[in-house]
Specification:
five-stranded mixed β-sheet, single chain
């Protein structure tokens, strides 16, 4: 109801556009304006379907504008989005299509998508897969991302992927003790990683990912950028395969 009240003037303007073109409303006297308003109100009450049609037109225009803005942002940020040196790249580095995932380790749907995306990337064989650390669900999310980024900075991509896999399936809170034990289980010295977690360079990587997400109006996880398409939320593997096929077909 609140949205309708906010956009009602726009809907009325859309529905009355033909009348406005035929009538110079600025030259009406106050009495003529009142009479005109009354006739308009009566007409809309008698034909509410006009407002429904106007609502659809408005929604279509908003969607078209949003799609155009999104395409422009993607075009202007190709390098930062697809070739960011601070983001892990997996799958086929020379794949014919790049899939970017904005993810949060504490996100239920990211965890649900995890195994399916792993399978998709493996079975397809031609996807270049980029992970963007995008912690938005509180302190545990931030701690997990900081740990993963610190691992990559110190030990490289292979160690990062192992840390990522462990964090996305981690039960319980990623406190210092848990993260230290996780590092040990991965065969890594915990102290340098824990010390590096709060470094400025780690903060800068997370901030850059948030800035990119803001440009794309990404507000939730998981969000995928697949070629020229932005997919918001969990997408089942079968649907993802179809979207991939559509992207490749152009």
């Amino acid at each position: 109801m609140r949205r309708f009240r906010l956009i009602a003037p726009t809907l009325i303007a859309l529905s009355l556009a033909p009348v406005a073109q035929a009538t110079d409303l600025t030259r009406m006297t106050e009495a003529e304006q009142s009479a005109f308003d009354a006739r308009v109100r009566a007409y809309l009450l008698e034909h509410p379907e006009v407002l429904v049609e106007a609502m659809q037109i408005l929604q279509d225009r908003e969607q078209q504008a949003a799609t155009a803005r999104e395409a422009q942002v993607l075009a202007e940020n190709q390098d930062a989005l697809f070739h960011d040196p601070d983001s892990w790249v997996g799958g086929n580095p020379d794949g014919d299509i790049t899939m970017v995932e904005f993810m949060d380790y504490r996100c239920t749907y990211c965890r649900k998508a995890y195994a399916e995306i792993e399978d998709l990337v493996k079975t397809d064989g031609n996807i270049r897969f980029v992970l963007k650390e995008f912690p938005i669900l509180g302190d545990d999310s931030v701690a997990s991302s900081r740990f993963a980024i610190a691992v990559r900075l110190i030990h490289g991509d292979d160690a990062y992927k192992k840390a990522h896999d462990a964090l996305i399936t981690l039960r319980g809170s990623p406190d210092v003790e848990t993260l230290g034990r996780l590092a040990t289980d991965l065969g890594l010295d915990p102290k340098p990683i824990l010390d590096r977690m709060n470094a400025d360079e780690v903060t800068a990587i997370i901030a850059a990912n948030h800035a990119m997400a803001n440009k794309l109006n990404v507000t939730g996880t998981p969000t995928f950028v697949l070629g020229g398409t932005v997919l918001r939320g969990y997408v089942p593997e079968d649907q993802m395969k179809q979207i991939l096929a559509d992207e490749r077909a152009g």
